[in-house]
Amino acid sequence: MKGMQAIRTRIRAVKNTAQITRAMELVASSKMKKAQDSALGSRLYACELAALFQAVTQQVPLESIHHPFLEERPVQHRGILLITPDKGLCGSLNQNLLRTLLTLPKTTRFIAIGRKGVQFLSHCHSDILAHFNCPDTIKFQQIQTVVHFLLEAFENKQIDTIEVLFPRFKNTLVQEPTLRHLFPMTDLRSEVQKLQEWSGAPTTTNPKANDTHFIIEPDGKTILERLPILFLKKTLYQILLEAKASEHSARMVAMKGATDNAESLIQTLQLEYNKARQAGITQEIVEISASQHTA
User: Fold this and answer.
1) Which residues have C-beta within 8 Å of that of residue 22, sequence separation ≥ 6?
2) In this structure, what DSSP letter does residue 61 have?
């Protein structure tokens, strides 16, 4: 009976765990749907921005543009914006991201979004310039502070590059750690092509392949000098949306796996309990029969 009592206690504990993981799965599933819709919907704007970049670069010689964000310089300190979740329980998402950090040089300086990244960087004694919070619902206005800090650090030469390490959302089951270089944009046409590929826009360089016509005012050079900052804002916004979609997708999959494992364990424990109970009943019958035969 003592063994049966231990099995019953364990079954109750596993059932309670399964209820918790099931509830977390449902919450993550709801948040995942909203985050995925936001991330995929925002790609339409990125597609139009890529088309605008392409139209302007076809009219303005890139050699005539002199912009601090378009000029390469010696790299003493790489600047990386690390985007991680605030919480765990999302499978290997955090581990895959943080494993990438171990391959970076010691001179790298970090700006962190999310508590998990801050905790890891602090533990590794990395150079953290700033850290920011990231709510589940991301609005475009919320990234202005991050963009302003990045641009100021780049202009003051605290960092010589602006790169982003984040979990890129590919689908519900796949979230890929991605390190993306943003500034300086030494090859603007290559950056335009990357933006087109990322947003799903056609990557052809033939202007006749696109029926969209742009009227550029006041002139292409002025517009092109203002586009890099808009490019940074939009790209960071899209990256944050992708990171949130990745986080909720990974958490939903992890909690579903935990729930399935708990239910499988409950079945195993229930079978073990039934065997122990049957053995106990058999033992009682044998003892009763033995006592009657003795009498």
Assistant:
1) 255, 259
2) -
- At 102 the pLDDT is 81
Per-state percent for the chain, helix, strand, coil, to nearest 5: 65, 10, 25
pTM > 0.70: yes
The domains found in the chain, sorted by start residue, are 28-252 (3.40.1380.10)
Of 47-51, 154-158, 260-264, give the lowest mean pLDDT range.
47-51
At residue 209, the pLDDT reads 42
Per residue in 184-234, pLDDT (tens digit) is 876 666 666 666 665 554 444 444 445 566 676 776 677 777 777 887 888
Long-range contacts of 63-68 (CB under 8 A, 24+ apart): 64/221, 65/221, 65/224, 65/225, 67/225, 67/228, 68/154, 68/155, 68/184
Q: What is the mean pLDDT of residues 25-48?
A: 78
pLDDT of residue 244: 86
Residues 6+ apart with CB under 8 A from 259: 18, 21, 22, 25
Q: Cis (ω within 30 of 0) for the bond into 167?
A: no
Q: Which residues of 192-201 are buried (b: 16+ CB within 10 A; e: fewer)?
A: bbbbbebbeb
Give the DSSP letter string of 173-201. Answer: S-EEEEEEEEES-S-HHHHHHHHHHHHT-
Q: Using an 8 Å Cβ cutoff, are 246 and 169 in contact?
A: yes
Q: Would you call 172 exposed, middle or buried from its count of C-beta atoms within 10 A (0-12, 13-18, 19+)?
A: middle
